[in-house]
Specification:
about 525 residues; alpha+beta; about 45% helix
């Protein structure tokens, strides 16, 4: 079959004329045309289309594209979080489902590698978990003594989303009556900046000191006063290294989500949707004001000009004109307003509420939800579809929440428990042989799982039945299903259930579950380690 001729390679009359006069120039034209025919495989890179010829963004580095815009992005992000119901609702939804009541520490040490029996590993884990729980529940874990560790988790995650990143100082502070212990201090993103507002250099970018060889963040310059505070005169900067030079201890944690390789600072969560959020808020305010105005009822009293001249003397006319002229145009429900002679009230019918408001608002919120990884039903907290659709929306949202929960556990919770455990071992309060002599041994002692609140249930009957079938098929465990249900491990529930069953048997009120074979009621006891006898 004969292939169709390429239109780029066909000569028109002008080409033929140029070829007759100047064959060399004609050959160059044909070569350029051939190059044009094979170049530009992506339509989005074309420059000869009206829709694209003015779209020429710069391809800058992460620092060039991000650092300059960060102050404005942070300010606008915080403004939306203060004044936009949609933005604040999305932020609260993220914080509630990712952090909730806090991520809880459960030791998961490698007992086989450490040469411990299961009983020894369990006893060590219970002791470490008990001690860490006491530290985490006390406000002494906060330098300012305002929050416990779970409150610090929530505030750190909220600030990271709102400002783009958050810094956590990890000093050891001696409180009254106690030896020096780990305490945490949250540093807002704005306080990490170049000293005296100096320009960025190759080694210091927006307050972060970078290694010129590896690109590693070496230190951060932290302002003692917030740059946006009223009293910033005489502000000083402290240089804090991320890791100790000799010990490698983590003195400062930097929590943010990198979006590009080599990115140094984080970007606010709602940065890509700030403009549509602001425009949507303005439109909502305009519609609300219009609806309020259209809902007002006022009576306008119009006076005939001839009657005005004949009924009133000059003093009365002056008083009426003065009173009517002082009306500012402000509307008030049930108010009677005198108009001047010859005046009339004319206004177009507002037609509020606008029937097109909700469909367009919903369409825009769906686009915003796509950017935030929040399905429309979850973002608006309005479920009116079927069970399957509602469950699908929650499952999609939980994928994102689990990912962010894992990030919070990896970059905040786990480093904190490693610092806390190092202090406990160094002070002799917890025994962990080989902790400081070998990094693999240390990692084995520090291994942990972080558990948060469960997703809850839409239809408990269906979900419990599905969980039971997964366990019976061997594709899941009671431990996994217990954590998925409410975040509490199965072993704790089992021990509590044993106590409850024994109490019911002792008092003669125990009845076996329906469908279980009849067996003599024998009390079950727990030894000191919690295992069944």
């Amino acid at each position: 079959m004969k292939r169709p001729a390429n239109p780029f390679m066909q000569q028109n009359l002008l080409d033929k004329a140029i070829a007759y006069v100047s064959p060399k120039r004609a050959t160059a034209r044909m070569a350029a045309r051939a190059q044009l025919a094979i170049a530009g495989g992506y339509t989005g890179a074309r420059m000869d289309r009206s829709a694209l010829n003015r779209w020429q963004p710069n391809a800058g580095s992460p620092a060039a594209d991000i650092i300059r815009d960060l102050p404005v992005l942070r300010a606008r992000s915080r403004d939306q979080m203060r004044n936009s119901p949609l933005a604040l609702g999305a932020l609260n939804t993220e914080v509630t489902h990712v952090v909730g009541t806090g991520l809880s520490y459960t030791p998961a040490i490698d007992a086989d590698f450490l040469g411990l029996t299961p009983e020894q590993a369990k006893a060590w884990g219970q002791d470490a978990q008990r001690r860490f729980g006491i530290w985490a529940m006390s406000t002494d874990c906060d330098v300012g003594r305002r929050l416990n560790f779970y409150g610090i988790q929530e505030l750190a995650f909220r600030s990271m989303l709102e400002s783009g990143d958050i810094f956590v100082l990890t000093p050891r502070i001696a409180r009254a009556g106690f030896s020096a212990r780990l305490a945490l201090q949250l540093i807002e993103a704005d306080r990490v900046c170049n000293p005296n507002r100096k320009h960025d250099s190759e080694t210091v970018i927006d307050g972060i000191e970078i290694s010129p060889n590896t690109g590693e963040a070496i230190a951060a310059h932290i302002a003692q006063k917030h740059p946006g505070d009223y009293l910033t005169a005489g502000n000083q900067w402290d240089r804090v290294v991320f890791r100790g030079d000799s010990t490698g201890r983590r003195n400062l944690l930097h929590i943010f989500k990198p979006l590009r390789p080599g990115q140094i600072r984080g970007v606010p969560w709602i940065a890509p949707i700030l403009e549509p959020l602001k425009q949507l808020g303005r439109w909502s305010d305009a519609e609300l004001n219009a609806a309020v105005i259209s809902g007002l009822f006022a009576t306008f009293i119009k006076m005939d000009p001839e009657a005005f001249d004949t009924l009133f003397d000059d003093d009365a006319k002056g008083a009426i004109v003065e009173k009517a002229g002082s009306w500012t145009g402000e509307m008030e429900s049930g108010k009677a307003i005198n108009l001047l002679p010859g005046e009339s009230v004319e206004s177009p019918a507002p037609g509020r509420p606008n029937p097109e408001f909700d469909p367009f608002w919903s369409a825009m919120v769906r686009q915003i939800g796509i950017a935030l990884e929040l399905p429309f039903e979850v973002l608006t907290m309005h479920f009116q579809s079927s069970y399957s659709a509602a469950r699908a929306a929650l499952l999609m949202a939980w994928k994102g929440w689990r990912g962010r929960r894992d990030m919070l556990a990896t970059y905040l919770c786990q480093p904190v428990v490693e610092l806390w455990l190092a202090d406990e071992v160094a002070e002799g309060r917890i025994s962990a042989p080989g902790f400081f002599s070998d990094e693999i041994v240390r990692a084995s002692w520090c291994a942990a799982t972080w558990t948060g609140d469960g997703p809850g249930s839409i239809d408990p009957g269906k979900e419990v039945d599905a969980a039971r079938k997964r366990v019976e098929m061997g594709i899941s465990t009671k431990q996994a299903e217990s954590i998925l249900h409410d975040g509490v491990n199965w072993e704790s529930k089992h021990e509590q259930r044993v106590r409850e069953v024994n109490a019911e048997k002792r008092d003669g009120i125990y009845f076996p579950p329906a469908g279980t074979p009849a067996i003599p009621a024998q009390p079950v006891t727990l030894d000191n380690s919690g295992a069944n006898d």
